[in-house]
Amino acid sequence: MSLTCVALGLDHRHIYGMTENMREVGVDCFGYWTEGEPGTLAGYTKRFPDIPRIDRLDDALSCSADLALVSAIPSDRAFLSVQAMQNGMDVMSDKPGCTTLEQLDLIKTVVSDTGRIWSVNFSERFETPASTRATELVDAGAIGKVVQTVGLGPHRLNRATRPEWFFKRDRYGGILADIASHQIDQFLHYTGSETAEITNAYVANYANSTDPELQDFGELNLHSDKGTGYIRVDWYTPDALPNWGDGRLTILGTEGYIELRKYVDVGGGPGTDHLVLVNGDTCEKIQVADAGLPYFARLAHDIRHRTETAMTQAHCFTVMELALRAQEMAETK
Questions:
Q1: Annotation: CATH topology of 125-287
Q2: Which of 153, 120, 149, 152 is nearest to 134 (CA)?
C-alpha cells in the first residue's frame, strides 16, 4: 500500500525534515498549502521543487492524502490537525502540537471519534540518530535502571529572521509548551514512565525587554514512579557556536550513564550525534550518526496497519499535557 501526504502550513523550518523524512520512507507528497508567504517558503520550494502549491485549504483537506504534515503557526496547528483528521487523514504535527489544554481536549475528542493518528514530531528525539542509539543501549540494560534525565535545550534567537508571531505569547504557546515538550518526551521515553508530575516550573525574559511576551528562559522539574527529571530551555545560543544550539541529554542509570551531544561537540570531535557511554565495562565517546531514524518508517507502518510502533497515542497526549501544565504553572506563580 503506497502512502501519500500533504503539508499544511510551512511556518516553521521543521517542515523541511518532516517532508524529507517521510519521502525517504516512500510517502509521496501531493502538495502543500500555507497561509501567505512565510519566510520558510523559499527554502521549502528550493528543497522540494516538484511539490506543487495548493492554493485553497479546502482543496488541500479534500485531496485524499493519508497523512497531513502540520507546521503552521503553533496556535493554528490544533485547528488544522482537527480538520485533517475529520477529512480522513492521520496527522504528524510539528511541536508544540497545540498551545492550550482546551485545544488538546478537542484533539483527544476528534482522535476518539475518527480513529485517526495524531502524532507530534518530537524532533530532538525522532530526528537525532544519537537518540536512537541511546534507546538501544537503555533497552539492552547498558546503564541499568534509568532513574534521571537532565535535558538541555538551548536555541539561537536569530531575531532578524523571526516572524511577528514568534514574539506573541498566544501564538507560540510559551517556551515550556514549545521547546520543553522535547525534553518531557525524552524523560518519559528513557525512564519508561507513562506519566509524571510537574513539581516546579519557571519562565522568564532576562535579555529581551523590548519583546515583553517573549520568554527566553524556562526550566522545570518532574518526577514519576520511575525517576526524576530536570529540563532547561533558552534562547541564548551565542553567535560563535556553529549551529543553532548545543542540545544535550544526560541519562543516569543505576549502573552507568549516557550523555548525548546531539548537534555539536565543543572542543571534541566534528559533526553531530556524539554519545558518551560510561558503565562498568566501558568509558568512551562514540560517533553514532549512522544509527538511523526509525520514527518515520514506523509511522508509515502505523498508518498502514493501525498500530502504535512509532509512538503510542497515550504518550503523545501525555507529553503535550505535561508541557501545557508546566507552562500554566510557571505563568501562575
A1: Dihydrodipicolinate Reductase; domain 2 (3.30.360)
A2: 149
Mean model confidence pLDDT for the chain: 98
Distances (CA, A) of 308 to 53, 126, 313: 31, 15, 7
**What superfamily would CATH give domain 3-121?**
NAD(P)-binding Rossmann-like Domain (3.40.50.720)
Which of the four pLDDT bands, split at 50, 70 and 90, describes residue 123? very high
Rounded to an integer, what distance in angstroms lies between the CA atom of residue 52 and that of residue 314? 34
Helix (H/G/I), strand (E/B), else coil: 264: coil
For residue 164 the three cell numbers come to 511577528
Domain edges within the chain: 3-121, 125-287
Q: What are phi and psi of 226, to 5 degrees?
A: -105, -25
pLDDT of 333 reads 74
Q: Is the dihedral of CA 237, 186, 13, 35 positive or negative?
A: negative
Q: Note if the bond before 129 is cis, omega within 30 degrees.
A: no
Q: Determine the Cα–Cα distance for residues 208 and 64; give it in Å rounded to an integer.
A: 44
Cell readout for 114 is 475518527
The pTM score is 0.97
